[in-house]
Amino acid sequence: MGNYKELIIKKVDTSLKGCVTLNKKEIALDNTIIGEVVNIETEGSKEKEHVTKVQIITPSSHRVKPVCPVYLKCGGCSLQHLEYAEQLNLKTRLIESLYTPFKVKIEPTIGMSNPYHYRNKSQMVFKFQKGKLVSGFYEEGTHDVINFDKCYLQNEYCNIIIITIKELMTKFRISAYDEDRKTGLIRHVLIKTSTLNEVLVVLVTGSDNFPGKSNFTKALVSRCNKITTVIQNVNSRKTSAVLGDKEYTLYGKGYIKDILLGKTFKITSKSFYQINHEQTEKLYQKVIELANIKKDEVVLDAYCGVGTIGILLSSNAKKVIGVELVKDAVMNANKNALLNDIKNISFFCFDATPFIVNMARSKEHLDVLIMDPPRSGSTKEFLKAVLMIKPKRIVYVSCNPKTLYKDIKLLEESYKVISLTPFNMFPKTKHIETVCLLKKINNHKFI
Ligand code: SAH
Question: At what angle do helices 401-411 and 380-389 cross, to 10 degrees?
Answer without folding.
Answer: 40
